[in-house]
Amino acid sequence: MKNSEPFSLVIEKFINWCEIDENTVFLSWSDTDLHVFVENFNQLLNEENVDFIKKYADLQKYIMSFLKTENNNQISLSAAAEKFSLPTDNFEAHRAADDSKICEKLFQKTFEENKFSNYIRNTQEPLFYSRLVFKPYIITDLKNAKIDKKMLCYTCPVCKEKTIFEGKFNKKLKAFFEIKQCEKCKNKIVATFRFKQNFDNVKLQKRIKKYIKKPAE
């Protein structure tokens, strides 16, 4: 490490090697490498954005569009190569040079210009990097201004009477939880609400069901 070249010089050499023009698109398997670039540029160059990358595409997302995976789970590079019957015996996983060659083979085998164009992102868009580095989080306060009051309405699963959710946050569930009696049918209701703050919106997951007391063992 003591004899290694400074990051700024290495990046300069890399940019020159890339011979970047207006049609250059940078690819990576998931956007993890781009996150690392952003972190290094911030810490070592005091720059917020990776300016030399004008266009970017997540190859993992593109490849997954050809595959059916359970619950849309992300697939590893080696698993993707196997799905497309690409030989990887001569490659060592998680080595940059070998991984890039596998990515190249996957891209060559699946390339469809019109389809791929939908996965290219313009990194010059004002919010591109803000969206990239944003980390979604669970909202733990019902009074949070990002929660639309309409999101707190739900109906009794028995009589369809409308009611308002007033639960308290349960750390174990990482969600809001309540058991309340329906004013109309008098049945007890179990309601679970989970609010996740994404960059663009708040995503609500809710589960409403009739409360059934478990018999004593």
Radius of gyration: 24 Å
Strand content: 15-25%
Low-confidence stretches: none
SSE-based structural type:
alpha+beta
Number of helices: 7
* Structural shape: elongated
H/E topology pattern: HEHEHHHHEHEEEEEEE
Oligomer: single chain
Task: Describe the protein.
There is one protein chain. The chain is of the alpha+beta class and 217 residues long. The chain has two domains: 7-134, no CATH class; 138-210, no CATH class. Helix content is 30%, strand content 22%. It has seven helices and ten strands. Strands 4, 7, 8, 9 and 10 form a five-stranded antiparallel beta sheet that branches. A three-stranded mixed beta sheet has the order 1-2-3. Helix 4 (77-83) runs parallel beside helix 5 (96-110). The model has no long low-confidence stretch (mean pLDDT 91).
Briefly summarize what is shown.
With 217 residues, the chain is of the alpha+beta class. 30% of the residues lie in helices and 22% in strands.
List the helices and strands and how they pair.
Blueprint: H1 7-18, E1 26-28, H2 32-45, E2 55-58, H3 59-64, H4 77-83, H5 96-110, H6 113-117, E3 120-122, H7 128-133, E4 137-138, E5 153-155, E6 162-164, E7 168-170, E8 175-181, E9 188-197, E10 202-210
Parallel strand pairs: 1-2
Antiparallel strand pairs: 2-3, 4-9, 5-6, 7-8, 8-9, 9-10
Helix pairs in contact: 4-5
Keywords:
217 residues, 10 strands, five-stranded antiparallel beta sheet, 22% strand, 2 domains
